[in-house]
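Section 5: illustrative case.
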């Protein structure tokens, strides 16, 4: 289920970004827009998967939400920062910046902050969906376990009653 949602979500991000670029008819080369969008999508896919690995290995979602919220926000900030670093590195490596003028006006810190904040909202949506799904699945599993235990208890009660009733009926039959 994770992979279906992961691929579907980032595929939707990719398709939506490309559609928006076509709607607004940006005056940049189409290949540049497509390559930028692919770089951003692949980076998002990678960082969100890395975030999932960290969350699973730290057992952060096994704890109460009140205890986890601070760590979840920290992991969101760090993953957004990592996303910003990786996107800027890929833009630099593959010459995907839209304008050299913007690069010259802004320093690396400003660019990193802008990209990290922009993607932080997407990562927040991803993290929220992931946490809700995880807590829902855990809650459902707990309900199933509870129902199984209740069934076992009922079975044991019936066996106990049966064990108590059998000697009584045998004794009455012998007396008759």
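Designed sequence:
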């Amino acid at each position: 289920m994770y992979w279906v949602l992961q691929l579907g979500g980032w595929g939707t991000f990719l398709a939506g970004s490309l559609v928006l670029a076509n709607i607004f008819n940006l005056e940049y080369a189409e290949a540049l827009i497509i390559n930028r969008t692919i770089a951003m999508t692949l980076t998002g896919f990678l960082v969100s998967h890395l975030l999932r690995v960290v969350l699973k290995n730290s057992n952060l979602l096994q704890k109460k939400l009140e205890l986890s919220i601070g760590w979840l926000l920290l992991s969101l900030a760090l993953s957004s920062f990592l996303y910003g670093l990786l996107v800027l590195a890929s833009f630099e490596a593959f010459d995907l910046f839209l304008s050299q003028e913007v690069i010259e006006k802004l320093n690396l810190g400003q660019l990193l902050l802008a990209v990290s904040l922009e993607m932080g909202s997407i990562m927040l949506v991803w993290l929220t969906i992931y946490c809700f799904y995880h807590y829902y699945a855990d809650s459902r599993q707990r309900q199933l376990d509870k129902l199984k235990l209740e069934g076992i208890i009922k079975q044991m009660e019936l066996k106990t009653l049966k064990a108590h009733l059998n000697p009584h009926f045998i004794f009455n039959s012998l007396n008759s």
